[in-house]
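Fold this sequence, please.
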Amino acid sequence: MVRVPKRLRLVGYRLLQAIPVLIGIVVVSFLLTRALPGDPAVYFAGPAASESSIEQIRASMGLDRSLPVQFLAYVGDLLRGELGQSISTGQPVLTELTTRLPASLELTGFALLFSIAVAMPLGILAATRPNSWIDHLCRFVVTAGVSLPTFFTGLALVYLFYFLLGWSPAPMGRLDILYLSPPHVTGFYVIDALIDGDFETARAALAQLILPAVTLGLFTLAPIARMTRAAMLQVLEGDFIRTARAAGLSGNKVLYTYALRNAILPVITTLGMVFSFALGANVLVEKVFAWPGIGSYAVEALVVSDYAAVQGFVLSMALLFVILNLLIDVTYTLVDPRLGMED
């Protein structure tokens, strides 16, 4: 009998767990969108439409059928890879999502890189120097990052770096009107421009990205710094750390080879949750900086009760969340030394 390693068993178990989650998401997203206030047929028909024309539009959209029939039709469209037509833009929802999702991913990814670059060193320094000025600075940054609303932080940064100092370009989307969008490869303007060898466009895209990424990063670094500090404090009090120090190992080797490796596991879990949360909650940042992402698209669809657009947004975010959690579980199994010993 072939013995399957524990790491592979865990990955397979997580994949099986994702199936009922996705089914539940399909059902809940369908029911929630039907509970939205307003009638999309009335919006699509216009304020001067008659009752008969509204009924015709409602019938053409399939809204006159019972909920079970609508749900079966919705599931059939999903199985064919169709997410419907957006009534607010007139474009297929799948086209809108594939166009806007890279913008949100680029913003959230750069914000998370900024958060990691600031939060993890700050959390490590705070854990190694408890009750020092660095520890107090870490607590202040964490409190400020959670307390300050993202729209306030974004407006303050725009006022300082654009209006007063003139260091930042106008907060008008992903790229200044003087530049053309780079050829589509990944959907990330900075990376696509670098692949194309257009360093001037890459610099312009990065300049547009800095302020919104820092705005979102200041909000997301709080849980990362707090978790890094807490995990490092707990590990540094362990017996194996005292043994390593007593054996004469250098402070850097004890800190980064032994302590950080054991403290990184809860930090990885926190990173995954922060990324998924930021991807769905960056709508205020997108509004402040006119960023054409998926968050602003979902808000506009909610306002007009655009069922297809809202359902497509919910499903795409849920799928990303499931994939992200699976990647976190796989990474967790790869970096956890205890699982390697049990294979």
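The chain has a mean pLDDT of 77. The radius of gyration is 24 Å.
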